[in-house]
């Protein structure tokens, strides 16, 4: 991964370009980062639920499976970007235990570092455009 003299890799510079679109102030950038962070957490929770249940959302494999999705709960988390509300998926049996952000956990310090590392190494990259074009920056 090639880095430039300001310390950012080419991938990170691409992310910077996407983030600064339509920003007129540092407050705009902060708000985008906050929404991006919340959207990333929500996507990770969705992936956890999919793994837990063993089938994708809206899949017919979930019919009569004994457990299925049951909407969302709201949770307020505190991060370096400020306070934000996320939607946490629920299952009918009430047995889903999220790992990304545990039940009753409100502070996200260690998760922020993990997410930034995933962006740096390109792990989240395939969903990056999807997040930016979806509700995250709407």
3D structure, described in words:
With 138 residues, this protein is α+β, with helices and mostly antiparallel strands. The protein has one domain. 44% of the residues lie in helices and 15% in strands. The protein is elongated. The C terminus is likely disordered.
Fold blueprint:
Blueprint: H1 10-20, H2 26-53, E1 69-79, E2 82-91, H3 109-121, H4 125-133
What's the quick description here?
The protein has helices spanning 10-20, 26-53, 109-121, 125-133; strands at 69-79, 82-91. The model is unreliable at 128-138 (pLDDT under 50). The protein has 4 helices and 2 strands, in the order ααββαα.
Keywords:
single chain; 138 residues; alpha+beta; elongated
Q: What is the approximate shape? A: elongated
Radius of gyration: 17 Å
Strand order within the widest beta sheet: 1-2
Number of helical segments with 4 or more residues: 4
The helix/strand order is: HHEEHH
Structural class: alpha+beta
C-alpha end-to-end distance: 31 Å
Biggest β-sheet strands, sense, barrel: 2 strands, antiparallel
Number of domains: 1
Mean pLDDT: 80
The residue fraction in helices comes out at 40-55%
Tell how many strands the DSSP assignment holds: 2
Give unreliable regions as ranges. Answer: 128-138
Percentage beta strand:
15-25%
